[in-house]
């Protein structure tokens, strides 16, 4: 069991026009193995920057991220990423996409076949292994993306707005799939979303981030993800407790948006 530690992460970007952007300022948190963290916040508050630092795609200006005792300096198989869309290999079948990681890692082909079959079943695509990616709906493609990520057996799954391009109904079904995968696999998951409802429903922990400089403004521990495993998602999302929390978080974000608009008007943007 390993713990993810983000220690005093700051990230400053120097723009070509000479401006400095403090994308993240002194962000610290610990995440236990198997926790599901949702991150929410207005555009530009550093959500993707934080995820990219954890993924090892970006090096922070200062601070460090550790998985257990290992400092994360590069991308690695201990972390898997699921993007909003477009990250699948279009020229490969569904099964070949899922098999790609284990194949590159030199896993025996018989074992890969078993892994692929298991994962196709886990994500509800058992009859679709031979299909081409373009034959699948957006929701099915995201199921493949989840299966492909799981095939590498990462400790931590990083999701950058993974359901953002889906229609409302498919998105709800996929939220339930994310909860099921979380419970069945015991993986640590960090999920960025722009949807307050999705963040509250999926995050057993939730960070609401604020911009300029990017930082964690408020942290919540929430019961709804656990409830969503056994109850109808509609019942969870229409409960008085859920609605009250949604209003609280929405008004916090609206407050930040208004502040940003005010600042932009003051500098003539
Ligand atoms: N490579 C870069 N060079 C310069 N500035 C950058 C770079 N990457 C991000 N930024 C800036 O850092 C800040 C945080 O960006 P980031 O993309 O992490 O925010 P975000 O919360 O994910 O936004 P969104 O919700 O719009 O995706 C923004 O002001 C952005 O313009």
TrEMBL record:
The keyword Lyase does not apply. One of its GO terms (molecular function) is ATP binding. Pfam families: ABC_tran (PF00005). The keyword Transport applies. Residues 4-236 form the ABC transporter domain. Keywords: ATP-binding, Cell inner membrane, Cell membrane, Membrane, Nucleotide-binding, Translocase, Transport. CDD domains: ABC_NrtD_SsuB_transporters. Belongs to the ABC transporter superfamily. This is Taurine transport system ATP-binding protein. It comes from Marinomonas pollencensis.
